[in-house]
Task: inverse folding
């Protein structure tokens, strides 16, 4: 029985074993699920706790596949990606778009606060963004952050000057020359200087000035006024060489704004295609276009070889020769080579003289030739080119206006006056002709006659009229006839960015220099010079009196047309940083004293001279040409009463043996109502904030 029981138990055990196997399959699956679940939980905890996976980056990558715009990647997105479902049209609300822009532009906005101040104002106005350009695209910034400011842009803003408007003559001859093989060229790549050659003489619109308050709030002045930079104007837009592209006249921003409604009906006329190709040129248009494409890409050497080949193969092709001239012109800018520019000038002439040249090509070629001649200082050659242009196109008023400017550049006011009289006879409302004609009348001392021409010309808002010189001379003319509206025009000139303030109206300026009308010796840093002048004032006086007594002709009458009445003579020792002839031979001790002070003798924008003013003299309110200097007045022979000088709203008197220091870029006025002459010694010094490099590179005035 016991054996049977054991066998029975074994059978039950085997049956149980079988049951365990069958049931084991059920319970083991559940067990594994539980185990895996637990492992998953602990793995997730470990991953999160130990930061094994960057969830943000994973989610960010999956978000790229979010096709339905719900913010995550799900089954619906997968269906779209697999082509089982159409992609929904997801629109971003304006608020969402603003958020996107803010994130994208935050890097660009985070820049040094003074970066704008470092940018050269010689750059042209920022072009308006095309309506087709998406806002997000325009605002996007690369992951590497904002692109750095070019080194030459920063240095140019405060190290070198631009050719800004001079009071007389109008306009100034451009003095900047190419500098071949300049070692600095490698430091400042020329390609970054889009405005290296000033061909128009047009002013560039500046940002609204940021005002800083001086000791007296009436001396508000701007840190962003007519700044001197090597490159002021961008080259004018050239007519596109291909026949499909129209020639458009470059307009100033204010003209575009003021006459926008008026110009709309004329858009079709403006977009008229220039005919640059004659019949023969059309047969080789493909070759011309290929060479032109190289030029447009900046591959000037290759483009020049291509155009030279075309000229050799087709010597009678005006368009090929014009392309060669343009490429030589471009290459001259790149290489900073006067020789290459002269080659371009010659080639422009050759292109215009070929037979069967279209009138549009003649105009474009000769206009550019005149501009480049003017740039090189070949003003007479430019005048001859413009005269030829006006003969070919006698009805073109703009060409006659340019011819008038060429006469002014030569100092031929009489010739310019005749040209502008001819223009105003056929176009009495031409603003450009009016302001220039008014300027000429004022230079002839026809003050009252000049005012309506200057005023109406400025009010016209036409291109070429928004110039600091015209505001300057209109205000000056109004002051001389006692019209208080002069300060309205000075204020307007200030708002237009031509003047630092209503008081400070100099036109050759360096940005950012401390601006105040009166200075102390300590403020200038030139205390040694001031002490030397004051300690030796009697020696200086005696030498001046000796020269004045022995040779009264040495005191040359003032010739700047600044006197209302009276007599005012000057005896100059240094001018533009150089001794004047043998002037120091009669003043040896004074000159010896001054030679120790290069801030005075080396001031290329100033003078060192004696000034004698006779009783009954009044000097009109006026301003000096530049903010780059300060002016010292040492009293030598001063009558007890009746002699005074006003600078802005502060009036002071001279004292014998004492130095007055003021900034003559601010308005000042002089009265001599004493019974005897007044003698002072004038010493101009560099503005103390100018760097050594600026003092070396600024052009003389």
Result:
């Amino acid at each position: 029985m016991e054996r049977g029981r054991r066998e029975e138990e074994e059978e039950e055990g085997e049956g149980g074993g079988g049951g365990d196997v069958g049931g084991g399959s059920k319970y083991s699956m559940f067990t594994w699920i539980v185990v895996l679940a637990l492992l998953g939980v602990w793995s997730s905890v470990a991953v999160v706790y130990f930061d094994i996976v960057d969830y943000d980056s994973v989610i960010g990558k999956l978000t790229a596949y979010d096709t339905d715009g719900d913010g995550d990647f799900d089954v619906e997105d997968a269906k779209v990606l697999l082509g089982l479902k159409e992609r929904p049209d997801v629109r971003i609300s304006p608020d969402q778009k603003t958020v996107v822009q803010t994130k994208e532009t935050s890097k660009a906005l985070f820049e040094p606060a003074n970066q704008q101040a470092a940018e050269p104002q010689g750059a042209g106005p920022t072009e308006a963004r095309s309506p087709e350009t998406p806002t997000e695209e325009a605002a996007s910034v690369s992951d590497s952050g904002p692109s750095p400011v070019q080194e030459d842009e920063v240095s140019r803003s405060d190290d070198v000057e631009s050719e800004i408007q001079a009071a007389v003559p109008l306009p100034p001859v451009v003095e900047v020359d190419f500098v071949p093989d300049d070692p600095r060229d490698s430091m400042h790549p020329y390609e970054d200087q889009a405005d290296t050659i000033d061909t128009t003489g047009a002013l560039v619109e500046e940002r609204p000035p940021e005002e800083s308050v001086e000791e007296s709030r009436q001396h508000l002045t701007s840190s962003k006024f007519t700044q001197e930079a090597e490159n002021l104007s961008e080259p004018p837009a050239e007519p596109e060489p291909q026949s499909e592209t129209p020639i458009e006249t470059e307009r100033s921003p204010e003209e575009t704004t003021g006459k926008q409604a008026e110009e709309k009906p004329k858009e079709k006329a403006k977009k008229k295609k220039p005919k640059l190709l004659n019949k023969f040129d059309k047969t080789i248009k493909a070759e011309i276009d290929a060479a032109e494409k190289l030029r447009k890409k900046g591959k000037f050497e290759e483009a020049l070889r291509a155009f030279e080949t075309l000229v050799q193969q087709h010597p009678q092709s005006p368009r090929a020769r014009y392309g060669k001239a343009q490429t030589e012109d471009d290459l001259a800018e790149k290489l900073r080579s006067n020789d290459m520019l002269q080659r371009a000038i010659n080639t422009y002439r050759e292109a215009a003289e070929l037979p069967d040249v279209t009138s549009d090509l003649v105009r474009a070629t000769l206009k550019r030739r005149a501009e480049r001649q003017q740039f090189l200082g070949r003003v007479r050659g430019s005048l001859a080119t413009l005269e030829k242009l006006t003969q070919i196109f006698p009805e073109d008023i703009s060409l006659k206006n340019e011819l008038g400017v060429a006469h002014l550049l030569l100092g031929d006011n009489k010739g310019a006056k005749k040209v502008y009289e001819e223009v105003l006879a056929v176009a009495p409302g031409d603003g450009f002709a009016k302001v220039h004609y008014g300027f000429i009348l004022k230079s002839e001392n026809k003050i009252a006659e000049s005012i309506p021409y200057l005023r109406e010309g400025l009010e016209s808002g036409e291109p070429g009229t928004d110039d600091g010189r015209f505001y300057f001379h209109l205000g000056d003319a109004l002051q001389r006839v006692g019209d208080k509206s002069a300060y309205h025009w000075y204020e307007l000139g200030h708002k237009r960015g031509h003047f630092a303030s209503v008081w400070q109206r100099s036109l050759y300026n360096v940005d950012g220099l401390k601006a105040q009308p009166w200075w102390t010796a300590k403020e200038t840093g030139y205390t040694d010079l001031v002490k030397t002048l004051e300690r030796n004032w009697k020696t200086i006086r005696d030498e001046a009196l000796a020269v004045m007594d022995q040779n009264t002709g040495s005191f040359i009458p003032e010739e700047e047309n600044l006197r209302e009445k009276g007599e005012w003579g000057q005896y100059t020792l240094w001018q533009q940083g150089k001794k004047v002839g043998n002037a120091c031979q009669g003043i040896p001790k004074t000159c010896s004293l001054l030679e120790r002070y290069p801030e005075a003798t080396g001031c290329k924008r100033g003078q060192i001279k004696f000034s004698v003013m006779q009783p009954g003299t009044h000097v009109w309110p006026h301003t000096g040409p530049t903010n780059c200097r300060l002016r010292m007045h040492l009293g030598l022979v001063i009558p007890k009463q009746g002699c005074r000088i006003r600078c802005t709203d502060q009036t002071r008197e001279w004292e014998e043996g004492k130095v007055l220091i003021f900034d003559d870029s601010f308005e000042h006025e002089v009265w001599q109502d004493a019974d005897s002459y007044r003698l002072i010694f004038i010493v101009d010094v560099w503005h103390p904030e100018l760097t050594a490099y600026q003092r070396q590179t600024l052009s003389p005035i």
